[in-house]
Structures are given as C-alpha cells and as structure tokens.
Amino acid sequence: MGSMFRGEEVALVQLFLPTAAAYTCVSQLGELGLVEFRDLNASVSAFQRRFVVDVRRCEELEKTFSELTLMGFLEKPSLKLSERRCLGDPAFLQEEVRRAGLALPLPVGRLPAPPPRDLLRIQEETDRLAQELRDVRGNQQELRAQLHQLQLHEAVLGQSHGPPLAAAHTDGPSSERSPLLLPPGGPHQDLKVNFVAGAVEPHKAAALERLLWRACRGFLIASFQEMEQQLEDPVTGEPTRWMTFLISYWGEQIGQKIRKITACFHCHIFPFLEPEEARRGALQQLQQQSQELQEVLGETERFLSQVLGRVQQLLPAGQMQIRKMKAVYLALNQCSVSSTHKCLIAEAWCAVLDLPTLQQVLQDSSSEAGVSAVAHRIPCQDMPPTLIRTNRFTASFQGIVDAYGVGRYQEVNPAPYTIITFPFLFAVMFGDVGHGLLMFLFALAMVLAENRPAVKAAQNEIWQTFFGGRYLLLLMGLFSVYTGFIYNECFSRATTIFPSGWSVAAMANQSGWSDAYLARHSLLTLDPNISGVFLGPYPFGIDPVWSLATNHLSFLNSFKMKMSVILGVIHMAFGVILGVFNHVHFGQGHKLLLETLPELIFLLGLFGYLVFLVLYKWLCVKAADSASAPSILIHFINMFLFSSSPTNRPLYHAQEVVQYVLVVLALASVPVLLLGTPLYLLRRQRHLQRRPAGGQDEDKAKLMDSDACESGWGPDEKAGCSGDEKEAEQLIASEVFMHQAIHTIEFCLGCISNTASYLRLWALSLAHAQLSEVLWAMVMRVALSANLRVGVQAVVLVPVFAAFAVLTVAILLVMEGLSAFLHALRLHWVEFQNKFYSGTGYKLSPFTFAAEDE
C-alpha cells in the first residue's frame, strides 16, 4: 500500500540473455510480470526480425484453436458448412466441440510456455486430431445424407397417392365433356403411362405444381401430399417437413420437361414401380437398409464423441500454451543481437524493489545454459513509466484517477484520498438512508459473490461496469446512509431517533394558545427565545421537527449552500497542500515560497475567510439576536469594495481592518505567483553562466534539476539519466513567463469558479430530496390516504408499492445516482486534482501472461 500514495521507483535495466536460455528467461519473466520490454528494433520491419518464423508458426497453430474465421470465408459467405470443413476451417476444432454441445473446461493450474522443441509435437498432434475429426465428421455427414435419402424414398413409396390414373392423350387440352379413358382400339392405344415420384420442400410445392401444369399444358396428373412425420436435416440437424409428389404422364417429351423442372426446384427424384407388389418389396428393402445404416451411424457418432473428448482435453491447454509461446517470441523480437551473436540484449523498465527478484529469476532460468543472464541498471533519457500497485478494493478508485490521466513519474497519487472524498461528495448529493441502504446492499451482494465463476464470466457490459466498481458502490452507499442520517431523510421521510429539541407544549403553555386561537391560525410559530421551547440541538443531524415546518425548504437551502462552500474550500485547500509534497520530492524548494504560499494566501485569504464568517455566525450569533444578525454576503461584497454598510453591523471587533489586510495580501500574492518562479529560474541561469567553467558542476546540476522538474519529472530520474545538458541549460524566458502566466490566471480565476462549482453539492442535494418527496406524495401518500376498507386498501397497496419501488430504483437510484456520480467525478478532476496533479505520465505495462491465464 506504500506505493498508493506515490508511484514506485522504476529503473531502466539492460538484460544480457544467452541465446540458448533467452526463451526460458523471457518465459519466466512473463509468468511473474516484472518488466516492460522496450523495442530496440523499432526501425526494423516486423517481417525482418529474428524470430518472425517462429511467430508465424505460432500464429498458424493458434488459428487452428482460435474462434476466428478465415477471411476467405468472409468473402464467400455462400459456402456451406460441409464445404468449409473440406477446405479446412481454422475454427474447425472449436466449432466442432461447440456444435456437439460440449463446454471447454478451464485449464487446471498455470501452464508454463512450452519449450520450442515441443512446438512441432503440438502442431503434429493437433493436425492429426483435426484430420481424424474431419474424416469422422465427413463420414457422419455422408451417412446422414444417405439415411435422409432412404427415409425420403421410403416416404414416397409409402405415401398413399391413390390408384394410377391414365390421362387421355389428345391433340389439345381436354374439355369438361371429353372422357378421360378412350375406348380400346383407339389411335393411341400403344402409349404407356409413365410416373415421376419424389419429394420437395413445402414452400416450393405450389410453385412446382403451377409450373408443371403451365409447361406441360395439362398433359399430366400430379398428386402432392405432405409427410406426416418430420425428418432431420443432415446438415443443420433441425427437423424439417417434406412434400411427396407423384406425377403420371404420357410421352417422352413431357417426361423430359418434368425432369428438368423438378431438377430446377432441387427435388429428390426416386424410382417408382407401378405394380403394388413390387413397391412393397422395395419398401421392405429400404426399411432394412435404413435400419442397418442407423446402426452404422450410431457407431460413427460414438466414435465421434470419443474424438471430441480428446479435442475437449487438448484445446484449453493448447490454446494457452501457444498464446504464451507467441508472446515470448514477440518479446524476443524486441531484443537486439550482440555482435558475437551469442546473446540477446534487451532493455526493460522494472521496479527497483523487484530488481533482486529479477536477477534471481534470470540466474535460475539460465543455469542450464552454462552462462548466467545478467541485468544491470543503466542511465535513461526518457521519463520512466508510473507504477502503482492496486488490489481489488483500490482498483476502481485508481481507475477514476487514471481516467483523467496517468500521473507522471513519482507524482503524488490522488487515489488514496479519493477513496474517502469521492464517496463522501457523492453522498452529500445523494444523502438518503433508504436509497443509500439499497445501493449498499446491492454492492455488498456483488462483493460477497465476487469469487463465483458465473459472476466473473458474465458478458453483459452493464453488469461488468457495476461489478468492476462494486467496492466504489459499497462506499458510496455507506456514505449515503451516513449523510442520510445527517439530513434525517429515509425515502424523504424524517425519523425520530432521539427526542426533538423543540417543545410545542412549552410554547403553548407560555403563549396562551386557546382553542379559538388555534381555530383561527392554521400555522403556529415556535419562538426559541421563550424559555423551554428550544431545549438544545438535536444529538445527530437535523431535528425531525423541521420536516413539519413550512420553512423547511428555506432552512435546508441555507444550510446546504453554506455547507457546500465549506466543503469546497477545504477540498481545494487540501489539493494545494498536496502540491507541497510534489515540490519537496522533486527538489523544487523555490516553489514552496513562490507558488504554494501565494496560492494558499489567495485561496484562504478570500474564500477561507468566507468559511470563517459562516462558522463564526453559526457559533456566536444567538437566537435572540437573529432579527439583527448581519449578512455575510454583504460583508463579503464590501470586503472587495473596501467599503462598509451602516445597516449591516460587524460580526466582531476590527472586522473591516482584518478584511482590508486579507484583500491586500491576496492581491499582493498575484504578482509573486506570476513573476516569482520565472525570475528565480532566470537568475539562476544567469548566475550559472557567470561562474567559471571549473565551478559550474554543482550549479549546473541544480539548474538541470529545476528545468527537469518544470518539464514534468524530477531529479530522481535525472540523477540516473544521460540527457542533453545543453538543452537543459537553455531556458527560454518567453516560454517560462507564458507558462507561469497561464498557471496564475488559471489558479486565480479557478478559485472563484471552482468555489462556485461546489454549489452543485447544494443543488443536487435539494433536487434529490425534492424528487424523493414528490415521488412519495404522488404515489404512496395517495394510496395510503385513500378511504377504503382495510382489505381493499391492502390489495390496492400491492401494485402501488410495486410502482413506487420501480420508480425509486429507476429514477432516484439509477438516474439520480448517475448524475451525482458524474458531478462528483467533475469535482475531483477539475476542482481538486488540477491543484497538484498533472496526469501527463504513462503506465508501466509489464510483460505478463496474466491475461492468457484468465
């Protein structure tokens, strides 16, 4: 947790890896995730690097396991599944396992990257298993297709289409009065009736019948019937229905037309025997073949299940190992080769605390090669990356900070303070015991179930967002319960935990309220100046009697507005104070006097004094003097105008003198803030240039430190860096003055705008309370005040309460919660972090196999 307050110290190390042990060393570094490799071959094309052949082999093998599809199939979407298998779909293994309804198990334990010599073995085993699976699946498809044809043929022969009909062969279409059968001995007595039988898909049957009738001009008789049972499609496996048909005709030309038309409709044509006994014999033979084929198909599917079981065991481990192997070779491609070609040279960022572990890992990994790998620190010119270690609790808060910008190297990290301030500012806008408790319970349920695999594997994006911020939601709900007790609001209703500090009985006894007086006055006033009416402040939070007062909103309006200003000034002052730790750490002592001190004088002299006036009036002005209590707003305006108001009495003795002094100090701090740092840096540069060459070393180092800190990183990095000293010595006055002028204007104007920005705490708190009040009044109060029987009202309350619960969750929890979250986010990013946090760094991204293991 020590690195949470400031990023860890990171060093640039150079690794000398023996060629024989380079793969093993990098593989072990990937398991531990200690270093981030720098690309030493940035100018070399990816196709010209040393291990490009190994990367390609891994990619080819990875394609066999992956879920991707060949680009060729994307260009040819019309290819059937069977055609894709024949061509060798790269997702073949995984697709077959999923098609069989099997789940891929997670690999047991952490599998290391396999040695390079195992790559060929894994590839041969995978290809052999894929070919075996392809052959078995192909045989299964052929058997299913043959079985499907037999079942269709069986259905055609078994379907009852009536007795064979003979159509009259005439020179033209027959009329209604012409007989269908001609007397024997006619001119066409030598013609023979032929038959075409088959099956067609139901949605094509009507079109087929219509086209046959039009093309053959009615010289045929067609009978269509739908099959009673559904047949399994041999490709998709889905049940489908078929229509069987029997067509009788005369003449070879008509037969040719019928065959061409049925072929265009992709009909299945089967031989049809006219004698009934022959059809029965053929039907029995088809049934026997179908039974034998089903037995062979069953044996094939059982063998296919065994092959799929082996694939199911191979895929998870194989996928993980190949991904790790590919990552190792990609990391090795970032290394340069020594002149003797006996070792690889790599550069990497590593935390200083992990350097002993790094050296030990390299020694253990290279012990078999006979030559030990070496790691040593080297000077750097670039700013090191930022490393802040997090856990499951702090990750969401660190994510809020990093969304604004990753902190520069060893800059003060706002995340530890955000753990408290962010939920608290959210709760100030969302304060309600009931709403906060619902949010807390929802987050608590996610926290308790965080180790369940089903919860982690959920793919819903909204759920992943909530689950990732479960600890943030937990604290937000907990703080909302706390502020809800302060506001004394639970679903907009006040609760009486302690006795009220106001006594209505004492007011009635001492004011002489009679029945006639009570009848004439619907509103009564409690005077705290009367003894016994105000017994003392409520022990915790706001007195519940205020929920009955007509000036309840005015009271909360004044209270929350002043509370927002107080919290805002404290929050901004805390941000300025955190900047002190940056200046001390980076050796910028001059900024303590020339920047931090003027900033505090300006902020606290004006707006800190406003907070003092609010607190002083709360503590020192009594109820007896409330009628003549001075206005803080008028005093604050007169403070800037250097004037006084005779009708607005001062709060304390010599108030005007104090205010004038504070304004003068605040105005005097502006030129110090504007000119102090640039003049100091220019004076040091001029002093350095006047010194003799032999005595410039110390001052040159100091100037380099100051200039380095101005550019974004401190002397701790420069101490071990080999930057260009001439560039460090050169200081452009115009740029320094311009940078400082922008900073001064931003801070001075920001103090005013940022203080006003914290009034959003007041606005959103009142909006949340009023929305909750309106929802209660328009839904629950209407149902509770209905003059109905007890049983009827109980029945009515069920849907009313359901509607109240849905609206509460949808509007007050989700919408209002999201609004308060965004406003709290803005207060941290703009009003708080810009006082000390630059966010111009970049993260340390170590080379690790953690993603592959997950």
Automatic annotation (TrEMBL):
InterPro entries recorded: V-ATPase_116kDa_su (IPR002490), V-type_ATPase_116kDa_su_euka (IPR026028)
GO cellular component, one term: plasma membrane
UniProt membrane topology term: Multi-pass membrane protein
Protein name in UniProt: V-type proton ATPase subunit a
Localization annotation: Membrane
Role this protein plays: Essential component of the vacuolar proton pump (V-ATPase), a multimeric enzyme that catalyzes the translocation of protons across the membranes. Required for assembly and activity of the V-ATPase.
Keyword Coiled coil: yes
Membrane-crossing segments per the record: 424-449, 470-487, 530-549, 561-581, 601-620, 627-645, 657-682, 790-815
Family: Belongs to the V-ATPase 116 kDa subunit family.
GO biological process, alphabetically ordered: vacuolar acidification
Sequence segments annotated as region (Disordered): 161-184
Gene expressing this chain: Tcirg1
Source organism of this protein record: Octodon degus (Degu)
